[in-house]
């Protein structure tokens, strides 16, 4: 070792007995037996070592020293009489002849016990993140993150990708979320934007003659937090390939990701190439979502014809979807809890009934189905003991509600969910266009830069809502890791694609001047994708919250409460960038 130590706190073994060593670290705990005997636990980045204080002089050096102070201990290694086989250093202890206080903790009480920090309130953890990160179980996730990123970087280099960093200060671009704006001091009234993604830059790199690009790219989006989405900023494994097709992108991702998940993941098996491919419309119909968890073997059935006129009001004139679960023996309390959670997540109700072992409909809405029992049994392929969950509404709402119901039923039924693996799939053939919920007008469904399937011919001759795009999503265990696409590199096709949503050539030139002009000088066909690094690591670690694998995350309100951001600035700073603040009026 270098620095002011001879070894780290996870390094000493029985073979070191008799050696004189110097250790440094945090004073984790002292079990004081008497005025001349105590057992001190010293912790550093690597682990812990027991220090046995055996003299009154050494004990006095620790009087008044608070836990979490940093200290240096010089002493002799010896064999422990009461060995701890659960610790790497559990066979030895160090008897000190010198103790030096390096950095005092001035507080008698800590906001939480270091080794129990995960039990503390989240805002308290984030405020004292530097203490939270001292917890070995918290720190280990950040260490693992570093190793995973290094592994991804190595694999991309091995495949001939060139790592290129793209600008952080750029122009505002419509990516689907709000931009973070940065005022330009030397250009009054104008703003930079932090990139929501390096989308345009990586496509311009392809037009510039680079063949394979990648980057562990920081992205900035002013959007709300979720369990699997950090507000403000996140990182993605951004990649793009020139003269490439959808198949080329799939082959790279299928080669890079599964080995990383298997090597570092809490589960040791991952899907092998080729991943299952599911068209978007099929995914919505079978799974009620475009990010299906394929560890669950349940699928949706359409029950509209057999249920819609059964006399149950919520089904009348609606699409009805069913989820049939065999061998589901949950209690009424569990069933009610699942239905309540469906309503919380979707704002729509779920319904149910059972076919008991005697072949009778019981529970839930069964009384509305008695007169058509045989028809329902035949239509849904029911067997005695089956549980049937139901949703109703307009087609998309019924599908999405059933998708949530499917996921909850699968999680509650060990028979229908494999929990110890990573199941990848591709969702393909997304619609190019959709009718906007708010505008009621034709809009791009996913990515305006995607190549329509059928090219110019499709744009000119097909009904817009029937046009599919070379657009694909990567999904793992029900979590969307990334969207990608074969890009629309042809200026004429691009103009036509935008015309259908009411934007002309001048609009395209104004919104994307650099990329459009670059394509006018001969652009190669190209395709790419950008799996989210944070989400991947969250899955690999088996964490439910993405904040657990980010070193310094914001809270749910997009606030860094450790640093106090966002914060006010003084008037001179505002004057320098020509900004005047107008606060909203209080209601």
UniProtKB/TrEMBL annotation:
Database matches in Pfam families: GAD, tRNA-synt_2, tRNA_anti-codon
Location in or out of the cell: Cytoplasm
E.C. number: 6.1.1.12
GO molecular function: aspartate-tRNA ligase activity; ATP binding; catalytic activity, acting on a protein; nucleic acid binding; transferase activity
Renumbered residue ranges of the record's region Aspartate: 199-202
Keyword Transmembrane: no
Keyword Acetylation: no
UniProt xrefs under SUPFAM superfamilies: Class II aaRS and biotin synthetases, GAD domain-like, Nucleic acid-binding proteins
Binding site for L-aspartate: 175, 221, 446, 487
Enzyme class: ligase
Binding site for ATP: 221-223, 480, 532-535
Signal peptide positions (record): none
Keywords, sorted A to Z: Aminoacyl-tRNA synthetase, ATP-binding, Cytoplasm, Ligase, Nucleotide-binding, Protein biosynthesis
Function according to Swiss-Prot or TrEMBL: Catalyzes the attachment of L-aspartate to tRNA(Asp) in a two-step reaction: L-aspartate is first activated by ATP to form Asp-AMP and then transferred to the acceptor end of tRNA(Asp).
PANTHER family recorded: ASPARTATE--TRNA LIGASE, MITOCHONDRIAL (PTHR22594:SF5), ASPARTYL/LYSYL-TRNA SYNTHETASE (PTHR22594)
Alphabetical list of NCBIfam families matching this protein: aspS_bact (TIGR00459), PRK00476.1 (NF001750)
Subunit relationships: Homodimer.
Homology family: Belongs to the class-II aminoacyl-tRNA synthetase family. Type 1 subfamily.
Name recorded for this polypeptide: Aspartate--tRNA ligase
């Amino acid at each position: 070792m270098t620095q002011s130590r001879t070894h780290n706190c996870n390094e000493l073994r029985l073979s070191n007995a008799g050696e004189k060593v110097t250790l440094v670290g945090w004073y984790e705990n002292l079990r004081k037996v008497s005025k001349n005997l105590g057992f001190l636990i010293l912790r550093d980045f690597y682990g812990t070592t027991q220090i046995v204080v055996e003299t009154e002089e050494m004990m006095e050096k620790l009087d008044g020293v608070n836990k979490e102070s940093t200290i240096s201990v010089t002493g002799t290694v010896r064999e422990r009489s009461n060995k701890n086989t659960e610790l790497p250093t559990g066979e030895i202890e160090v008897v000190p002849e010198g103790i030096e206080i390096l950095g005092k903790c001035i507080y008698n009480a800590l906001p939480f016990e270091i080794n129990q920090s995960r039990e503390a309130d989240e805002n308290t953890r984030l405020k004292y993140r530097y203490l939270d990160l001292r917890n070995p179980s918290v720190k280990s996730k950040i260490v693992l993150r570093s190793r995973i990123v290094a592994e991804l970087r190595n694999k991309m280099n091995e495949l001939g990708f060139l790592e290129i960093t793209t600008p952080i200060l750029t122009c505002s671009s419509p990516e689907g979320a709000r931009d973070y704006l940065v005022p330009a001091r030397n250009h009054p009234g104008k703003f930079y934007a932090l990139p929501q993604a390096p989308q345009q830059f990586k496509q311009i790199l392809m037009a510039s003659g680079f063949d394979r690009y990648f980057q562990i790219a920081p992205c900035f989006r002013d959007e709300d937090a979720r369990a699997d989405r950090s507000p403000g900023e996140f990182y993605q494994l951004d990649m793009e390939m020139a003269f490439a097709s959808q198949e080329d992108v799939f082959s790279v991702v299928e080669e890079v990701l599964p080995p990383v998940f298997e090597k570092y993941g809490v589960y040791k098996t991952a899907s092998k190439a080729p991943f299952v491919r599911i068209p978007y419309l099929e995914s919505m119909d079978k799974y009620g979502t475009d990010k299906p968890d394929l560890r669950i073997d349940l699928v949706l059935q359409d029950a509209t014809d057999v249920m819609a006129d059964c006399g149950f009001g919520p089904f009348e004139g609606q699409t009805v979807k069913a989820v049939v679960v065999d061998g589901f023996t949950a209690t009424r309390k569990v069933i009610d809890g699942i239905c309540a959670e469906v309503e919380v997540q979707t704002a729509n109700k779920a319904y149910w009934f059972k076919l008991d072992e005697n072949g009778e409909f019981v529970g839930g809405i069964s009384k509305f189905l008695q007169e058509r029992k045989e028809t329902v049994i035949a239509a849904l392929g029911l067997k005695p003991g089956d549980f049937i969950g139901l949703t109703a509404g307009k087609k998309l709402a019924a599908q999405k509600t059933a998708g949530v119901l499917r996921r909850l039923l699968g999680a509650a039924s060990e028979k229908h969910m494999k929990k110890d693996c990573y199941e990848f799939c591709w969702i393909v053939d997304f619609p190019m266009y959709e009718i906007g919920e708010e505008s009621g007008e034709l809009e791009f469904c996913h990515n305006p830069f995607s190549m329509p399937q059928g090219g110019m011919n499709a744009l000119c001759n097909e009904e817009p809502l029937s046009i599919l795009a070379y657009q694909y999503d990567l999904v793992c265990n029900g979590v969307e890791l990334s969207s990608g696409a074969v890009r629309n590199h042809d200026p004429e096709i691009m103009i036509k694609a935008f015309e259908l949503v009411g934007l002309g050539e001048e609009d395209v030139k104004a919104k994307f001047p650099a990329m459009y002009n670059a394509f006018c000088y001969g652009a190669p066909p190209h395709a790419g994708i950008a799996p989210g690094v944070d989400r991947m690591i969250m899955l690999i670690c088996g964490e439910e919250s993405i904040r657990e694998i980010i070193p310094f995350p914001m809270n749910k309100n997009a606030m860094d409460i450790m640093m106090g951001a966002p914060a006010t600035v003084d008037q001179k700073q505002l004057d320098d960038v020509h900004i005047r603040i107008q606060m909203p009026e209080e209601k």
